[in-house]
Amino acid sequence: MDKQKRIPLYQALLKHTAQKPISFHVPGHKNGKVLPEQAKNQFQQLLQLDVTELSGLDDLHAPQGAIKEAEDLLAELYQVQKSFFLVNGSTVGNLAMILAAVKEDEMVLVQRNCHKSVLNALKLAKAHPVFLEPEFNQEWGVSTGVSLETVKEAVYRFPEVKAIILTYPNYYGMVYDLGALINHAHLHNIPVLVDEAHGPHFILGNPFPASAVELGADIVVQSAHKTLPALTMGSFLHINSSRIKSTKVKEFLQILQSSSPSYLIMASLDLVRSYLAQYNQKDVQYLIKQISEFKEQLNEIQSIEVLSFPNSDGDLLRVTIQSKCHLSGFDLQQRLEKAGIYTELADPENVLFVIPLLKNNRQFPLNEALMKIKSALGDIPAAPKKLDFQLSPERITELAIGYKQMLSCENEEVPIIESAGRVCAEMVIPYPPGIPLLLTGERVTEQKLRQLIRLIESGARFQGGDALDRGMICIFKTE
Ligand SMILES: Cc1ncc(COP(=O)(O)O)c(C=O)c1O
User: Fold this and answer.
1) 91 CA to middle of ligand 1, Å?
2) CA–CA separation, 336 and 377 (whole Å)
């Protein structure tokens, strides 16, 4: 583990800066010396490290020096065959792993509640997705993971599939028996690609759920920036088997990632890998204590309840509160924002807090936050609520119009309330979490329509669906 204390890329950058180099290269801010006046104080120091592929600083697309060493240390920590630094989020990791695994017209099983980047990758590949409906937790009001039965049935019906693409954990930190799904897929020699955007810290083991890497997934993508103290967009991709060639993944990463990757992001990935590797039992105990006290105090507020993970298995860093009053999750979130508390996400029932991976005795203003939360939500009377969700009866579905066919289809706008039975011509994505409610090429069912109306009425924000605020939705003309 001593080796994991090394931070080769960060050190290479410090060594470069120590020479007080005069820059006649890109970027144009010249090590932070030339900056718009307003940004000088904030940016100057940090931008000394925002350099480019100079001597001694290696090259992300052909690593041989400090970046190679940093990526090798990452692979060693996760005990995988190969790891890549990503500078464009899990988004680029999902695109690269899927494009490497699936070609035009090939079938692939996909967990339906996936991030839009997974669907964009399938569209780019012109693949033929078969969607697996996840289970639904009635108490939380959210979709979780796919059941083994669904995977078994899908593999039986579509034995020719080239891969299974799963998301683990869900946005709320909920997990499922991923190991059983992977084992079943591997029995049929089907590679399993896992979007573990929210779980890079699971490698720490208990009290965190098992990590997709340990469970044997073939490729795993993780947003280091979501739960580790990394810069936004900093992410990892791990190759954990030979079922899909790592050279193919590398080829797509070279196509999709910038030829000028950010050294700040890469250095922060090097630093958080070392941070994670040195996270010890004392840190874990401190974190557990901080979070349980936070939850206990939250539970004293009558208008909300802190949700517990089914079977106590879920991500410790995620704290979900559910409305127990007349307000929606979106309303609660707005009240919190007025009090200076900014949360990760709201849905019609819940608000999600993401807690940092604190090291022992590291301060984070949880008590100050509690005071503000109590003053924002404390005076709202409790009101009994009955959550009642309609579930999709179909476990396995396909697009009504495939990615190739839709290229020659025309669109039109129709009133949302008249869209049931038609085929959607855009992705309608409540954001966050960025999981499409409706897919391009998917038929609008009565149940999806009700869900959409419920979200609009409760104040959700959307990406795609530009006409929603005019009460319209874009659908395909054909049929
Ligand atoms: C499950 C999941 N996958 C992938 C992504 C994309 O990650 P990134 O923002 O790192 O590109 C997100 C982002 O929220 C996500 O929730």
Assistant:
1) 6
2) 8
**What does the domain layout of the chain look like in residue ranges?**
1-78+258-279, 88-245, 281-377, 399-476
Looking at the domain 281-377, which fold is it? Aspartate Aminotransferase, domain 1 (3.90.1150)
Q: Which residues of 423-458 are buried (b: 16+ CB within 10 A; e: fewer)?
A: bbbbbbbbebbbbbbbbbbbbbbeebbebbeebbeb
d(CA 287, CA 437): 35
Q: What is the dihedral of CA 49, 54, 60, 63, to 10 degrees?
A: -130
pLDDT bin (cut points 50, 70, 90) of residue 1 is: low
In this structure, what token pair is assigned to residue 140?
Answer: 């939380």
Residue 476 CA to ligand 1 center (angstroms) comes to 28
418-466 confidence digits (pLDDT tens): 999 999 999 999 988 888 999 999 999 999 999 999 899 888 899 888 8
Q: Which atom of ligand 1 is nearest to the CA of 88?
A: 11
In order of 11, 275, 303, 464, 465, the CA distances from 6 in angstroms are 9, 10, 48, 43, 47
Q: For residues 458 and 326, what is the distance between their CA atoms, to the nearest angstrom?
A: 12
For a substitution probing ligand 1, which of 117, 233, 237, 268 has the most ligand atoms within 8 Å of its CB?
117
Q: Is 115 in the pocket of ligand 1 (CB under 6 A)?
A: yes
Closest CA to 319 of 382, 195, 227, 421: 227
Q: What is the pLDDT of residues 106-150, one digit of tens each?
A: 999 999 999 999 999 999 999 999 999 999 999 999 999 999 999
Please tell me the class of the 88-245 domain. Answer: alpha beta
CATH of 399-476, one of 3.30.70.2190, 3.90.1570.10, 3.40.50.150, 3.90.100.10: 3.90.100.10
Atom 10, ligand 1: residue with shortest CA distance: 89
Q: Which residue, chain included where needed, has tokens 């993970």?
A: 309
Pocket lining: 318 vs ligand 1, CB cutoff 6 Å: no
Question: pTM score, two decimals?
Answer: 0.97
Ligand 1 atom closest to the CA of 195, numbered from 1: 3
H/E stretch holding 179 reads helix 178-187
Mutation choice for ligand 1 from 85, 88, 90, CB with most ligand atoms inside 8 A: 90
Return the H-helix or E-strand segment holding 156: helix 148-157
Instruction: Give the number of other CB atoms < 10 A from CB of residue 283.
Output: 18
195 CB near ligand 1 (under 6 Å): yes
Q: Do residues 333 and 346 touch, judged by C-beta distance below 8 A?
A: yes
